[in-house]
Write a structure and sequence with these properties.
The chain is α/β, with parallel strands linked by helices. The chain contains 12 helices and 12 strands. A 6-stranded parallel beta sheet has the order 3-2-1-4-5-6. The chain has a 6-stranded parallel beta sheet with strand order 9-8-7-10-11-12, with helices on both faces.
Length: 356
C-alpha cells in the first residue's frame, strides 16, 4: 500500500479543479454488496448534479450493476468480477482508456481501503482521488475527506465525499433511488393483480381496496434468516386482521420451497424473482414491505416504502435510510431466537399506521 501510494499520479495534496468541459470525467468506485450500491445512488446523483454533463461513471460488480439500470445520473458502468484475474486486467485496461479526471472511493467502512482500489486507481491514472481516509498513511487519496464516525448512519458518513465537488451536503437530497422501466412495472402489476385474486374472489371493490404487502424471506447470511414457521404465524395474524390485504411472498430462487410453503399458509402469491430487477419491481409497486436486514430493505428505502425491517441492533448504522415504518432491532445471538410475538406486534403497527 505504501508503494502504491508513492507511485500514484497527481500532486500529493490537492483540491479538485472546477468541473468544466466534457473531458472532466468522474468515476465512483463501489464494488461490494447490492445494499451498498443502493445507498451509493444518492452519492452518485449528488456528484453528477455538480458536473456539466450531469453523469458519473461507476465501477460495479455483476451482482450490483443491475441497481444502476435506467439511472439517468450514471454514464458508463465498468463491471468487475472480483474473483477473476482476467476481469481485473480487462477493467484496468478500460480505466486507462477512459481517462477519468477524478476517482471517488465510495467505500468508507472497514477496511478503509481495499488493496484492489489503489491498483485500479493506478491503472486509471486519475490525477485526483477522493476518499474518506483523513490524514492517515499511506496516502492513497490526494483529496481526503474526514472519516465516518461509525455511529451515524452510513449515508451520513458518505456525505463528506461530495464536499470536494463544491456541494453542500445539507442542501441536497440523500434518499437513495432505483429507476424502473414501464415494462418492469407492468410485469409487477400483473403479479399484484394475481395476488388480489386470491383474496377478492372476483370482487373488484375488494381487489382495489386491499393494501399490498410484500414479504421477503431471504437474507444475505443464515444468521439473518428468520424461520419459515415464525413468518407463517406472524403473517397469519396479519391476515386475520386484514383479510383483503394483497400479499406476495418472495425469496431467492434457492428458497423457492420456503416461498411456496409460507405463501400457501397465508393466502399469498409466491413470487419467482430470478432476476434482481424483478424483486425491485415488486418493491416499487408494493404499498408496504416486510423483510430481514438485506438489500430489499434498502430497495424499500429507494422507493420510499413504509417497511418492517428485522435488524441486528449493532447494524443500525446500515439501516434503510430515512424510511418510514418499523425497525425491529434484535439483540439475540441468532435471529431464530427473535420471538414471533414481537414481530407480529411490529407488523400490526406498520399495517395500522400505513395500511389505511
Amino acid at each position: 500500500m505504501r508503494l502504491l501510494g508513492s507511485i500514484l499520479p497527481g500532486p500529493r495534496d490537492a483540491s479538485l479543479p472546477s468541473p468544466t468541459g466534457s473531458d472532466y470525467r468522474v468515476l465512483v468506485i463501489r464494488y461490494e454488496r447490492i445494499g451498498d450500491m443502493i445507498m451509493a445512488t444518492s452519492l452518485i446523483r449528488n456528484i453528477a448534479n455538480a458536473l456539466p454533463g450531469g453523469k458519473v461513471d461507476v465501477l460495479a460488480t455483476p451482482a450490483t450493476a443491475p441497481v444502476l439500470e435506467g439511472n439517468p445520473y450514471v454514464g458508463r458502468i465498468f463491471t468487475l468480477n472480483r474473483r477473476s484475474i482476467r476481469s481485473y486486467t480487462d477493467v484496468m485496461k478500460q480505466l486507462r482508456q477512459a481517462r477519468h479526471t477524478v476517482m471517488v472511493d465510495g467505500r468508507i467502512n472497514n477496511p478503509p481501503i481495499f488493496t484492489s482500489t489503489p491498483l485500479l486507481m493506478y491503472a486509471g491514472r486519475a490525477r485526483f482521488r477522493v476518499g474518506a481516509h483523513g490524514d492517515k498513511k499511506p496516502r492513497i487519496y490526494n483529496v481526503p475527506v474526514p472519516e465516518w464516525n461509525r455511529v451515524d448512519h452510513y449515508i451520513e458518513g458518505s456525505k463528506q465525499l461530495v464536499v470536494p465537488f463544491g456541494v453542500n451536503p445539507a442542501s441536497v437530497d440523500w434518499q437513495p433511488e432505483i429507476f424502473l422501466s414501464p415494462e418492469e412495472r407492468t410485469r409487477a402489476e400483473e403479479m399484484w393483480k394475481e395476488a388480489a385474486s386470491l383474496v377478492s374472489f372476483g370482487n373488484a371493490e375488494a381487489e382495489n381496496r386491499g393494501k399490498r404487502l410484500l414479504v421477503n424471506l431471504s437474507a444475505s447470511e443464515p444468521k439473518r434468516r428468520w424461520p419459515d414457521g415464525k413468518f407463517i404465524v406472524t403473517l397469519q395474524s396479519a391476515r386475520a386482521r386484514f383479510p383483503d390485504m394483497q400479499m406476495i411472498i418472495m425469496g431467492l430462487p434457492s428458497e423457492w420451497a420456503s416461498v411456496q410453503r409460507v405463501a400457501n399458509a397465508v393466502r399469498a402469491l409466491p413470487a419467482a424473482t430470478p432476476k434482481l430487477r424483478d424483486a425491485f419491481a415488486l418493491v416499487g409497486t408494493a404499498h408496504l414491505v416486510f423483510t430481514p436486514d438485506t438489500s430489499i430493505s434498502h430497495a424499500a428505502s429507494a422507493f420510499r416504502k413504509p417497511s418492517l425491517v428485522l435488524l441486528k441492533r449493532e447494524h443500525r448504522p446500515y439501516a434503510p435510510y430515512n424510511t418510514p415504518g418499523e425497525i425491529l432491532a434484535w439483540n439475540e445471538d441468532e435471529i431464530q431466537q427473535l420471538p414471533h410475538e414481537r414481530v407480529a406486534k411490529a407488523l400490526a403497527k406498520l399495517l395500522s399506521d400505513f395500511g389505511g
